[in-house]
Design a protein that fits this description.
The protein has helices at about 55, 65-85, 105-125, 130-145, 180-190, 200-205, 230-250, 255-285, 305-315, 325-330, 335-345; strands at about 25-30, 35-40, 45-50, 95-100, 125-130, 150-155, 160-165, 170-175, 295, 320. It is of the alpha/beta class and about 375 residues long. It binds 5'-O-[(R)-(carboxyoxy)(hydroxy)phosphoryl]adenosine and zinc ion.
Length: about 375
């Protein structure tokens, strides 16, 4: 197999006791991870099978939609069977089958959705359509039983948003990016510094060896009111610094890359802290919970430096800090199974068999679009 088979058991918890129904199979194919997982109502991840396509996209420096869709077709049937085998189940033991139906790359979404619908139809089970972003948002309740309402910082390759989450399907967007998503900024920074895709882990690794004070980078929007983000100016500043540095020294050396990555990571941290502090103030105006949760979810939440800073902020502001373990920050199917299960628990008659894929699907359908926002990443 040419793919990275990322330890498929990484997120599965060994059952502590007999799992409680309903059991939901989740399928995730919205970008470059193919995954299938089964979860139970008492928050056990009974199985989790995942293949990352990183090896297939690395030479292109980003996700190629056509390659992604073909790869999902090749590996999804095998992963579904693996998830059933690991949970010692067959399709008849499931109560519902969920799949991501948006937002994401439409070719991949179609593969997951049609597989799930066919399985549901053939076994006379309900099909549940899951918003990928809701999967990230509700992971906090899978791992921690986090109570509503909570404040969510969603930081991924296609999104950077702050939302009040009052219940399943109940989202109030406090802020979003007006240009690039934060993961996208990591990926573009990595690309222009010659680091591998995906950029986030590569920048974090390089930053660990760098001096964050050598280069000065901007903190866009941090002096402004509100909770919106902007990262394109930061990316442009990185390009300028990298070019200057290479011109002066004849080339960009490894320590230069490390210092730029370190400065970039601290600047991103400052932006996230500033905007989240504003959101905390707004959240406090709307809710009087003594210790609400600040949930940080999405692929960028895997970054240890950013996790550390946001956890300190939460503690200072009397918020409980909740962030998934790293394998559940990046795309996975346990979050899709769980979001499906939450929706199914509220409405056991639910069946989304007539729903189509939505390449764009905002969590807060009432929020007004911002010019240029959320249009660039694969998940935008
Ligand atoms: O949630 P995710 O797996 O997919 C989307 O829904 O977009 O997030 C992927 C994003 C990529 O931009 C990747 O570079 C970023 O998350 N990412 C990180 C780290 N790990 C993944 N960013 C910063 N530090 C990391 N350690
Ligand atoms: Zn995601």
């Amino acid at each position: 197999m040419s793919k990275t088979n990322q330890n498929t058991n990484c997120a599965a918890s060994s059952p502590r006791h007999s799992p409680k129904r309903p059991f939901v199979l989740g399928i995730e194919t919205s970008c470059d991870e193919t995954a299938a997982a089964i979860v139970s109502a008492d928050r056990q991840i009974l199985s989790h099978a995942l293949i990352s396509q990183i090896d297939e996209h690395i030479e292109f420096g980003g996700v190629v939609p056509e390659i992604a869709a073909r790869s999902h077709i090749t590996y999804l049937p095998w992963l579904v069977q693996k998830a059933l085998d690991e949970a010692s189940m067959d399709v008849g033991d499931l109560d519902a089958i969920a799949a991501t139906t948006g937002p994401g790359l439409v070719g991949g979404l179609m593969v997951g959705m049609l597989t799930a619908k066919a399985m549901a139809q053939a076994s006379d089970k309900p099909f549940i359509a899951v918003n990928h972003l809701e999967g990230h948002a509700l992971t906090a309740r899978l791992i921690d039983d986090t109570a509503f309402p909570f404040l969510l910082l969603l930081v991924s390759g296609g999104h950077c948003q702050l939302l009040e989450v009052s219940g399943v399907g109940l989202y109030n967007r406090l802020g979003t990016t007006i240009d690039d998503a934060v993961g996208e900024a990591f990926d573009k920074t990595a690309k222009l510094l010659g680091l591998d895709y995906p950029g986030g882990p590569a920048v974090e690794k390089a930053a660990a060896l760098g001096n964050p004070r050598r280069f000065k980078l901007p903190r866009p929007l941090t002096s402004k009111a509100g909770c919106n983000f902007s990262f394109s100016g930061l990316k442009t500043a990185v390009r300028r610094i990298a070019e200057d540095c290479a011109n002066k020294r004849g080339a960009l050396y490894r320590e230069d890359v490390a210092d730029i990555c370190a400065a970039f990571q601290v600047a991103v941290g400052d932006c996230l802290i500033d905007r989240t502090t504003h959101a905390i103030m707004q959240f406090r105006e709307n809710h009087d919970e003594p210790l609400p949760a600040l949930v940080v979810a999405g692929g960028v939440a895997a970054n240890q430096y950013l996790r550390g800073r946001l956890s300190t902020l939460a503690r200072e502001q009397n918020f409980k800090f909740v962030t998934p373990p790293v394998p559940l920050c990046t795309d996975n199917a346990a979050m899709i199974a769980w979001a499906g299960l939450e929706r199914f628990a509220i409405d056991p008659k639910l069946n989304d068999k007539d729903i189509a894929c939505r390449p764009r699907w905002p969590l807060d359908s009432h929020a007004k679009g911002l010019s240029g926002s959320g249009k660039k990443g694969a998940k935008a």
